[in-house]
Specification:
Layout lengths: L12 H49 L17 H5 L6 H9 L4 H6 L1 H7 L2 H9 L8
Length: about 140
Amino acid sequence: MYCRILRVPRMNSSTLLFVKNTEQTQTKIQKENQRRRKLVKVMWVSVLALAAAILLLTVAKIPVAEGVTCSPMQLASRAAAMTSSSPPSEACCAKLREQQPCLCGYMRNPLLRQYVSSPNARKVSNSCKIASPNC
């Protein structure tokens, strides 16, 4: 077995100063990286908070039909106003407003379309001040 002896260079004051400066630079770089990571976290939290706020504002403006039972039979008693030129009663308008979220479904049904999209049905909607649905 042979042992090999390595020769270590002697460190003078300029070498030690270089090592010290290198350590300080590495410490500064590590601190800067930590600061950047914190900033990135803060930025992402801000972005997510803004997205959540926008989502809440958007959802708050979406009209939701609350407990409406879509039944064309509920409009059957209003058929006289829709098939003739007689003006609708206030009860008829109230029932029509209640069934307004269902009108698109009625328009898609071939059996009901002729009643819901007739000119008289449009007159009833206009006199009840109900906007025609865009389906």
